[in-house]
Inverse folding.
């Protein structure tokens, strides 16, 4: 019964819109007022959280019942993070912000 409810919930979550299954959890205009530095900071936070959630889901999936528990416990957060990442990327593209830092040396090559 719990598995059936989870499957229905995950199916309905996938109907949220064009930004992914977590799009119904995130306001699409949330990042409009952010400046480039704010977007870069938020991007870093989101990618760190994505890695953390992925690791937790991978760890939970190592056992049979853990996969179900991991999906129930972490999946909605994971989908929400992925959707926020897309929104931050879109806003950064519109504002012509660079989300990844390019390192430049302050010393010349000798």
């Amino acid at each position: 019964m719990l598995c059936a409810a989870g499957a229905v919930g995950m199916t309905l979550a996938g109907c949220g819109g064009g930004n992914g299954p977590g799009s119904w959890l995130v306001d699409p205009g949330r990042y409009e007022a952010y400046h480039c530095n704010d977007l870069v900071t938020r991007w870093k936070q989101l990618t760190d959280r994505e890695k953390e959630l992925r690791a937790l889901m991978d760890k939970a999936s190592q056992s049979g019942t853990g996969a179900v528990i991991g999906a129930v416990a972490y999946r909605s957060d994971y989908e929400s993070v992925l959707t926020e990442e897309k929104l931050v990327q879109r806003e950064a593209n519109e504002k012509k912000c660079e989300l990844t830092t390019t390192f430049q040396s302050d010393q010349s090559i000798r």
User: Anything to note?
Assistant: The two ends are 69 Å apart (CA to CA).
